[in-house]
Amino acid sequence: MGIYEPIRNYEDEKDNNGRNSRLDTNSNTEITMRKSGLPNDEDEDVELALQISQSRSPTTRTTTTATFVGNVANDGEGREGKQQEQQRQRLVSLDVFRGLTVALMILVDHAGGILPAINHSPWNGLTLADFVMPFFLFMVGLSLALAYKKLCCRVIATRKAILRALKLLVLGIFLQGGFVHGINDLTYGVDIEQIRWMGILQRIAVAYLLAALCEIWIKGDDNVTSGVSLLKKYQYQWVVALVLTSLYLALLYGLYVPDWEYQIPNAPSSAPKIFSVKCGVRADSGPACNAVGMVDRKILGIQHLYRRPIYARTKQCSINSPDYGPLPPDAPSWCQAPFDPEGLLSSVMAIVTCLVGLHYGHIIVHFKEHGVRIVHWMIITSCLMIMGLALDLFGMHINKALYSLSYMCLTAGAAGILFTGIYLMVDVYGYRRPTIVMEWMGKHALMIYILAACNIVPIILQGFYWRHPQNNILKLIGIGT
């Protein structure tokens, strides 16, 4: 995919013997990831969504994910010296931020049922769990700016980006679409008529592809010397973000949502129960009649949407709100209707989050001083936070399920604040020891995501047995009966 290479401010000073004597200490955390135009058999194709892995360049080759390569002299320097030089050039804050997000994801996935207050907001509002997806998208964009700093061939880079996005999309469908399910009753298989097409990895794949194409094809050749010149260089990428935002708002508030119906299965011997939902409105942002759900029902099909809708935890639909629970006696008809939180229209704004992260990465690429970077980051972050809060105040509510504009602004701004704080602590002041676990998790983010969030571990523990389902690995190690 990309490799971390020294940049201009990182060139070594050589002594009379040609040995590398020192690195520029003003840029000792700078990294640049370069996209290779050569074929690479060692790419870990799906890891770019959760972390950027390395590839082969005309002069440099890496074989492990998230290894940062520098210009290390080969005339007598030992392995320890090479490792120290790589660490000096590493942007550790990106790994730490990624690892922290993975840890947050695991926390809310497993503790959200016990502490509903940290689980996803039932509809309007913002909770701890609602930051996970935007943080991942923000990191993908930031990493892409580093990965595509220099390109050998735009066509080859485009082809490889499309291939990676497709592989990530397939992986998401396999893990979240129902190919592996029924953990509790140990049944496996998939009903193609009911498979869920969208999901977390699928959304990341779409956002990654669009952001990658923007970075490959629509950036200027201007030299960046100030914030204004930075905006000018990438002005067409901001035009894309503006067009996507305008398209989302036009569809969300302009589409007419007619009445619709859905059915839920009853006992095998009885006919399914049909529910009718009355709408006939425009510009509705409630659970039942919003354009986001309508687009998914029309294009994907209601049978292919997520069957445990987040709004089932609202007060109208659950007596245990904000947790799932039995339906109240006067529950509206839409409470059990499928709704995909990673649907098509909401993914449009997810792409914008990725483009915001891309701009944060541009600041790393073009500005070398820590202070200048932090100032630029905080200006963008402040604007996003203020805009998000103002939109919510004036009626465009913060809503993760719809991925509203106010939600995008506030969560992208929060990602900017958190990343800036980690950068300041880890890369500027060098406090790495307290974050070593998060750094490790960040290097293995995709693996941890698959094992922890996609039920792979429970499947391995419960899914293989001898003669009877009770004779599984858990019983073998003395857990359960």
Task: Please specify the SSE layout and strand pairing.
Elements: E1 2-5, E2 13-14, E3 20-22, E4 32-35, H1 79-89, H2 92-111, H3 132-147, H4 154-176, H5 200-217, H6 227-233, H7 235-254, E5 256-257, E6 260-264, E7 273-277, E8 281-282, H8 291-299, H9 344-366, H10 370-393, H11 405-428, H12 436-443, H13 445-453, H14 456-463, H15 473-476
Antiparallel strand pairs: 1-4, 2-3, 5-8, 6-7
Explain the overall architecture.
- Residues 90-214 form the Heparan-alpha-glucosaminide N-acetyltransferase catalytic domain.
- Keywords: Membrane, Transmembrane, Transmembrane helix.
- This is Heparan-alpha-glucosaminide N-acetyltransferase.
- By secondary structure, the chain is mainly alpha-helical.
- Helix content is 47%, strand content 6%.
- It has helices at 79-89, 92-111, 132-147, 154-176, 200-217, 227-233, 235-254, 291-299, 344-366, 370-393, 405-428, 436-443, 445-453, 456-463, 473-476; strands at residues 2-5, 13-14, 20-22, 32-35, 256-257, 260-264, 273-277, 281-282.
- The strands form four sheets. Strands 1-4 form a two-stranded antiparallel sheet. Strands 2-3 form a two-stranded antiparallel ribbon.
- Helix 3 crosses helix 9.
- The longest helix is centred in the C-terminal third of the chain and has 24 residues, at 370-393.
Key features of this structure:
15 helices, disordered N terminus, two-stranded antiparallel ribbon, 8 strands, globular, 481 residues, mainly alpha
Summarize this entry quickly.
About 45% of the residues lie in helices and about 5% in strands.
